Amino acid sequence: MSGIRPTGFLHLGNYFGALRNYVRMQESYNCYFMVADLHALTTLKDTKELKGHVRRVLAENIASGLDPEKVAFYCQSHVPETAELYLLLNMLAYVGELEKTPTFKDKVRLQPMNVNAGLLTYPVLQAADILLHRATLVPVGKDQEQHLEMARNYANRFNQRYGEVFPEPYAFNFGEDLVKVPSLDGAGKMSKSENQLATLYLADDDDAIRKKISKAKTESGGAPGAPVPDSVANLFQLMRLVGGETAAYEAQFNEGTIRYGDMKKELAERMIAFITPIREKAEAIRNDEAYLRKVMDMGAEKARASAKVTLELAKEAIGLNYY
Ligand code: AMP
Fold first, then answer.
1. Which sequence positions are flagged as catalytic?
2. Residue 267, domain extent
3. Is residue 98 part of a domain?
4. How many Cα neighbours within 13 Å face the side chain of 7?
5. 202-207 long-range Cβ contacts below 8 angstroms, 24+ apart
6. Are 67 and 80 members of one domain?
7. Do 276 and 298 share a structural domain?
């Protein structure tokens, strides 16, 4: 089980942290993937943009290879059982621990005029999304590790207080380390809203990709034995993610002969070859309203069937059954 917020254009971080794993998992697991539209309300003030964002996220997931016939692919708000489990889990979440969550503190810094209770309880809603399907594996990027720990805490607290209902969920990446796709400016990670010139979007055209990569931060460098600076290591990582070899560039770096312009050119062309087919497919799907409606209906039906079973188990364990 996993989800992506419809708050803007999807980027390489979303692809390599989340989407790529969704597509691999759909072949051998029972999967639930959603567009986290309720989560988006914690930060999105102008909800007029929501419909467009939701269609974009649906289309970009499918263009990346997600098959709505193989998985339950749905919109969070189409499964109202989510809100019911969220309410039940809120009784197990302590305000003190929510206030200490680093993502909450970041949001307080970013939107000091809109510190709503939904922001504070974001990890509880996320736990509800996951536990609703009694999911055990959650394909996410490295930034979500702490939220998963909180989801495990809520599952365990529920089980201890009321009786065993929920398995423990873990962040998942096929046995490999969780991915953090770095931003092109050498600091932090790619993200939907921060530093758009340093983030590569799945909707970027060829020129935008070339321009962003040509401006990516590098450091003059490379002396024998010198450590590779983060900005350069980031470009090596991006090169490997899109199937390029870095051994020769790393050797040149160590010798002090690396030509960043050449490396960036190769990286840009590989990136274009990677992004263009996704962008083109997504564009066609995004404009097919009837198909997207069918996808959402089909997904909601599958998700609600699973959610109903979980909620019955949860309510029975709590003692909310009086017949
Ligand atoms: P969000 O865009 O915050 O809704 O995140 C959706 C998914 O993309 C989550 O699984 C995140 O962990 C993942 N993700 C977002 N940014 C990155 C990044 N820069 N690197 C790796 N994964 C990411």
1. 107, 189, 192
2. 204-283
3. yes
4. 17
5. 202/9, 202/10, 202/11, 202/12, 202/14, 202/15, 202/60, 202/63, 202/64, 202/275, 202/278, 202/279, 202/282, 203/9, 203/10, 203/56, 203/60, 203/279, 203/282, 204/275, 204/279, 205/279, 206/272, 206/276
6. yes
7. no
Helix (H) or strand (E) holding 320: none
- 214 and 137 in a common domain: no
Name the DSSP letter for residue 198: G
Regarding the beta carbon of 53 and ligand 1, being less than 6 Å apart is answered no
d(CA 256, CA 250): 10
Q: In angstroms, what is the span from residue 61 Cα to ligand 1's centroid?
A: 13
As a three-state string, the secondary structure of 18-39 is HHHHHHHHCCCCCCEEEECHHH
Note the pLDDT tens digit of each residue in 89-109. Answer: 999 999 999 999 999 999 999
- 15 and 137, same domain (yes or no): yes
pLDDT tens-digit readout, 146-199: 999 999 999 999 999 999 999 999 999 998 999 999 999 988 899 887 788 999
- Does residue 235 sit within a domain? yes
Mean pLDDT computed over every residue of the chain: 95
**Ligand 1 proximity of 13 Cβ (cutoff 6 Å):** yes
Torsional class of 186: left (φ above 0), alpha (ψ -120 to 50), beta (otherwise): left
Torsion of CA 14, 12, 143, 188, to 10 degrees: -150
Integer Cα distance of 52 and 59 in angstroms: 11
Residues 68 and 28 in one domain: yes
Q: Which two tokens stand for residue 302?
A: 């599958």
Rg of the chain on CA atoms, in Å: 21
The rounded distance, in Å, linking the Cα atoms of 187 and 196 is 13
pLDDT digits (tens, 9 = 90+) for 232-250: 999 999 999 999 999 999 9
For residue 220, the domain's CATH number is 1.10.240.10
For ligand 1, say whether the CB of 42 is within 6 Å of any of its atoms: no
